[in-house]
Amino acid sequence: MVATQIKHEVKDLSLAPLGKQRIEWAGREMPVLKQIRERFGKETPLAGIRLVACCHVTTETANLAIALKAAGADSLLIASNPLSTQDDVAACLVAEYGIPVFAIKGEDAETYTRHVNIALDHRPNIIIDDGCDVVATLVKERENQLPDIIGTTEETTTGIVRLRAMFRDGVLSFPAINVNDADTKHFFDNRYGTGQSTLDGIIRATNILLAGKTIVIAGYGWCGKGAALRARGMGGNVIVTEIDPTKAIEAVMDGFRVLPMAEAAPLGDIFITVTGNKHVIRSEHFDVMKDGAIVCNSGHFDIEIDLKALAAKASEVRTVRNFTEEYRLQSGKSVIVIGEGRLVNLAAAEGHPSAVMDMSFANQALACEFLAKNKGKLEAGIHSVPVELDKEIARLKLQAMGISIDSLTSDQIEYMNSWTSGT
């Protein structure tokens, strides 16, 4: 083991051996990131770069952190969510890999805020953000550090919404790479990763049978599509709620029932919010829910469910299983909340499977390299992941899966690029 005198705040360094086993297990399913890490080790494209990552501290994130260190970055890692940290992973990154980590599963809001400020004390040049908390704090409270910033990357829908609002308000003074909207991220991570891991979290927390249950999915973006697809696959009767008419039509044509939340609330057995907004499930919805209705969130922040309103209605709150609380209402019925309304797939399970995070974190690694190589050349604002990087990640993933695809013939290339060729 390497020396552990680096600054850190983790639960228990003795957990490191277990964390190492689990990090290596996840790495088996992350061949694209492995290839990038090997190249980074030879080229060190992030040498001299101070980097802060605010991410879910999981086995998959650990593989990203190791790749960034191989690239030469002076990195520091904090948790982006108080309940998503895997304590053995955090310990291993400190003890085995010499990476400063400030993350403890279950940390309170005060500790989380302190860790954000510790991250900014690192005076980062590049920020990997997951929800935009570090960037927002930087802009609001650390204006003197803005000249240090080369850029940031963001891989959540919530974070991109915040960055766009910052840009509209004229306070985003550096480039931000929109990793979330890369094809090799949202098509797979948001849809297949969120779909599987959300149901995994619900099942681990409750051990209930999903078949025959009415499952209400709030939001039909890529995460909602994945959750609805998997819920139906487990035998659930799925209802979708939406505010976007186009997405609502899509849900209907995908075979789901679409209702306003007010009408869905009395029908649902399980409620999953994946909107990125606040108070999607509110006081009036709790009033009409079935006794024993289960509510959980797979959006980034814990405000999609109005838990303060629920607590105000409760005569008693008790823990009934790990990460599962029963709110006994004054009316006599109860509402079950999983994972304190935080990301259920990380609070009650292990997050997305490694195979999809392989592509997401390949995007993160290459986006950091892109920012470093283009220092001072990119305008302030939100930039897409370059198409050629996105396609290269897809190509590497197919290669790792042993799948071949066709290539265009010269005749086809000419046809696709000509306006004179007829049909």
Automatic annotation (TrEMBL):
Catalytic reactions on record: S-adenosyl-L-homocysteine + H2O = L-homocysteine + adenosine
Q: Tell me the enzyme class.
A: hydrolase
Binding of substrate, residues = T58, D130, E155, K185, D189
| Localization per record | Cytoplasm
Q: Does the keyword NAD apply?
A: yes
Keyword tRNA-binding in annotation:
no
The record's free-text note on cofactor binding: Binds 1 NAD(+) per subunit.
**Keyword tags:** Cytoplasm, Hydrolase, NAD, One-carbon metabolism
The S-adenosyl-L-homocysteine hydrolase NAD binding domain, residue ranges: 190-351
Q: Could you tell me which pathway this protein works in?
A: Amino-acid biosynthesis; L-homocysteine biosynthesis; L-homocysteine from S-adenosyl-L-homocysteine: step 1/1
Q: Which family does it belong to?
A: Belongs to the adenosylhomocysteinase family.
Under what name is this protein listed? Adenosylhomocysteinase
This protein's species is Floridaenema fluviatile BLCC-F154
State the encoding gene. Answer: ahcY
